[in-house]
Structures are given as structure tokens and as C-alpha cells.
Amino acid sequence: MSISAITHTALSGMLAQSARAGAIANNVANAGTPGYGRLKTSFRSVEPSGVQTSVGETDQSVDFAAELTELIDTELSYKANASVFETGADLWDVLMSIKRD
């Protein structure tokens, strides 16, 4: 796998987690709204590398403990993808310095 594919996958993961955080924020903001259905984010792997997200409404009510737990998981997943992206960027820097010398 190339460095650009790795950084693309990591970026795709960060975007997916951002969508998930948005759905969680929407759930918390609308928890008291009558008839509101909790939003759930689904992930699907796509080729050649990346993640596709879809956000759909469910018939479940909003549970603040579950939303907080999911937000913590979202944060950790985002940070993991950001670390991979930064590592890929560092590798590009190393390769560019080798090429110049």
C-alpha cells in the first residue's frame, strides 16, 4: 500500500468520525423534541481505500449515556486516524528529503 493510499484512508476515517460526531450532537440537541428519532451512523469500507458513511434515523429514543459513550469512541477513532495521517505526512517529508539529497 502506498503512502498516499494510507493518508487517504486515514483522512476518510477522520471525515467519517466527523459525520458521526455531528449525528451525536444532533441527537443530544434534539433529545427533548417530541417524535425525534435518534440518528445512527453506519460505516462501510469502500475500494480502493476509505470509509463511506450513512446517517439514518431510527425509532429509538436518545439515551445520553449511550451518546456519551459513542462520542468517546468517536474521539478515540478520530485521534487514531489523525495519528496515521500525521505518520504518513512525516514519511512523505522523509522521502522528499532523501530525494533532494
Automatic annotation (TrEMBL):
Pfam families hit by this protein: Flg_bb_rod
Protein name (record): Flagellar basal body rod protein
Domain Flagellar basal body rod protein N-terminal: start-end pairs: 9-36
Protein's UniProt keywords contain Thylakoid: no
Compartment list: Bacterial flagellum basal body
Organism: Rhizobium mesosinicum
UniProt family annotation: Belongs to the flagella basal body rod proteins family.
Chief location: other
